[in-house]
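Hello,

Following up on my earlier ticket. Below are the two sequence lines again, exactly as submitted.
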Amino acid sequence: DTAVSQTPKYLVTQMGNDKSIKCEQNLGHDTMYWYKQDSKKFLKIMFSYNNKELIINETVPNRFSPKSPDKAHLNLHINSLELGDSAVYFCASSDAKIFLVGRGHTEAFFGQGTRLTVV
Amino acid sequence: KQEVTQIPAALSVPEGENLVLNCSFTDSAIYNLQWFRQDPGKGLTSLLLIQSSQREQTSGRLNASLDKSSGRSTLYIAASQPGDSATYLCAAQYSGGGADGLTFGKGTHLIIQP
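Thanks for your patience. The regenerated structure is below:
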């Protein structure tokens, strides 16, 4: 059983289109994330979503929007795609733990990635 | 600014050698540190998770250590095998609120020569 699954695995689309990537986790985790891995293979957090609380990395354009129909799903919608959006997008999940000095998370599990190519 | 740095960026060694991958992080207020493996064109596989209160974790031939005071973690791979060839990523989870999620290093690309 795949713990974190995302579809599609590959996505090729033209500039200006709107596309979505789906993510599902069956681990019962309460927090889900989207990460972007650029052409230099550097992974960077885009969003985290916990119990209806969305935390956005300030560098993410507002053309990107996560949508969570329920606790097990966090989909990524991208509007008006640009060439620079080409990358591999990873979904991940973990559990949040509240402690005195803030919030930490348990081990994170990642999906297999979606390679987005904008032409 | 919270940053994670991995050294070396690439490493090639003969099969059977023991090796150490290094990871350093700014800001000692980490909640945990996680090591991943990424094969070409694949997703991330979690190898080891070290909580901030721990000094090390072991799984098979892998041993990861954590020294918060110096801002360093190492991943030790014993008796390396060609199947260990992959990119190894170190990621820190910082505590105290703000943007959740892991802060990744740029990885060490490891090649084990048969």
